[in-house]
Design goal:
Layout lengths: L12 H32 L2 H26 L4 H25 L3 H33 L5 H30 L1 H20 L20 H4 L1 H8 L1 H15 L7 H8 L4 H20 L2 H4 L4 H20 L4 H29 L5 H29 L2 H22 L15
Helix pairs in contact: 1-2, 1-4, 1-5, 1-6, 2-4, 2-15, 3-4, 3-6, 4-15, 5-6, 5-11, 5-14, 8-9, 8-15, 9-13, 9-14, 9-15, 9-16, 11-14, 13-14, 13-16, 15-16
Amino acid sequence: MSLLLDVRPLRTRSFARLWFATAVSTFSAQVATVAVLGQVWSLTGSALAVGTVGLAQAATSVVFGLLGGSAADRYDRQVIVAGTSLGQAVAVSLLTIAAVAVDDQQVRTTLVVVLVAAQNSFASFGAPARRASIARLLPSDQLAAGVALTHLTFQASILLGPAVGGVLIATSGYAACYALYAGALGCATIATLGLPAMTPPAPRDREVVPDGRLADLFAGWRVVIHHPMLRAAFATDLICTVLAFPIALFPAINSERLDGSPETLGLMLSAIGAGGIAASLLSGAVTSSARPGRVMIFSATLWGVALVAFSASYSLPAILATIFLAGSADTVSVVARGALVQQVAPEAQRGRISAAEQVVGLGGPQLGSFRAGLVASGTSATTAALLGGITCVLGVTAFGLATPALRRRAATGIGVG
């Protein structure tokens, strides 16, 4: 058994196409994110205007993510993935044109917000179909490896994309970042056109929900709540993020324990990404495990332990080491949880379950940041980090003990219990 990243899924041409499309679009999206934030700030000088961009993205992510999950369980997922890639490419192309051709600052600002929201709507609508496609393109013994490869592109993108974006803005301007993103989305669209048809099977009678009703959008949540392993997987994610997400505490910890410089804060933020990349590159043992539930529980517990150690660290090397460990544990937990969800989710409901997973992944860290700031404001950053780590360990352990199936091999295609 190799400890190195398992690249066997890339030998499957259809998965390699999907992975390439995801990689280039994710990296270029991080480049463009820097441009969007920088341009809106330069046009308005308003933090509220910058926050409006984030609000528009959050709202469209939830609404169109739920709609996309329902669509992914009813229509050909290949068509959805390719179509939404094309839609994103059109929206970003218009954003590029607006950055060059529109002179009025207010109009340009409005166009940036509207077009970014449009691009994110297409991305969010297509995301559940992308997630659900992995299980259709790979054999079950390579699912975890496929999730790890996908997660590696995300970690590398958030580490390198903003730096490339900053350099590109300084040398060529905002439009260059948008043009890069539009070109990457064009390449992604071409790649996804070559994917095989992936029409979902008809649901079993007990999985049928009324057509055209609001309940259909939340059918994935019903499956998650009634399925013990899925329920434990989602709860573990929420425990790790809502109760223990530490990023909001970094500035205060940096100010209280270190010199408070932007350089050390940057190192702290980079350490969690570096830990994630290291874990991805050495994920062979994780992705080959026959017990992803057990790996998920162990790594999620380690995440909490690392945050407890972080709360007690006062030197820069110790702080960076504990953050690096936390980032590594988080990546292992994400990969194991993603593999578990794809293995046990009913195929006819996989799109909606993927949409629920997307909402949890987006909302958990945001709520966790709010929790951390709230607790820190009433106590201290150290107390907030310590309590977060302890409650994470206790919560994950409780769910692990209450769900014996997590300690056994996950069975593919388990339905609603």
